[in-house]
Amino acid sequence: MAPKAVEKVVHPPPPGLRRLAWVRSLASSAAGLLAPVLGQVQHVGDLILERAGRKEKLCQGGERTFTGKLLGSAVAKTDFSPTHTASQVDYVISTGSAAVGTARQTISDSANGVRDIHSANLAFLSNAFQTYLTSLQRATDWAVENLNPVRATRAAWDWARATLARMQVYDDVEC
């Protein structure tokens, strides 16, 4: 008896598999690659059951092959699993997207707050520097005006001359 070929079944992705459709296509590709091996397993299983005379007992629901029931339950499980996983992936992505949006807004608000504080600090420091320069200019002007050595020397000479003149007045007085 020649081995029977297992037909490659291609399932279109369910409408809920937006992000995980590649899993379904990968499973279909793997099933296509494994079809010859499953054909051989099916053929060997059928031969064993025919010799044991139990093939008719195992066939239920119109399935006539050894691997039919196994493949049927696997397909039923894979139909649920990707859809369920896809809904979980959608939930994680939407929750993560919301968290990223909140974090982005928080970072933006923090950056704006830091920028405002920095601008206020720069304005304060600029004002303090201008105040310092003004007081330094006033001190310099006072020092130039009051601590001028030429002016001080002239004032000292004037005082000395006036003192000598008064001394001469007292010296000329006859006592």
Helical percentage:
over 70%
Rg over C-alpha atoms, rounded to the nearest angstrom? 52 Å
- Give the strand content: under 5%
User: Given the C-alpha coordinates, what overall shape results?
Assistant: rod-shaped
Instruction: Provide the low-confidence segments as ranges.
Output: none
What kind of sheet is the major sheet? none
Order of helices and strands: HHHH
Distance between the termini: 167 Å
- Overall pLDDT metric: 76
Structural class per helix/strand content? Answer: mainly alpha
Number of helices: 4
Number of strands: 0
Report on the architecture of this protein.
By secondary structure, the chain is mainly α. It is 79% helix and 0% strand. The chain has helices at residues 21-52, 55-58, 68-146, 149-172. It starts with 20 loop residues before the first helix and ends with a helix. The relative contact order is 0.06.
Topology readout:
Elements: H1 21-52, H2 55-58, H3 68-146, H4 149-172
Any descriptors?
single chain; 175 residues; rod-shaped
Question: Quick gist of this model?
Answer:
By secondary structure, the chain is mainly α. Helices cover 79% and strands 0% of the residues.
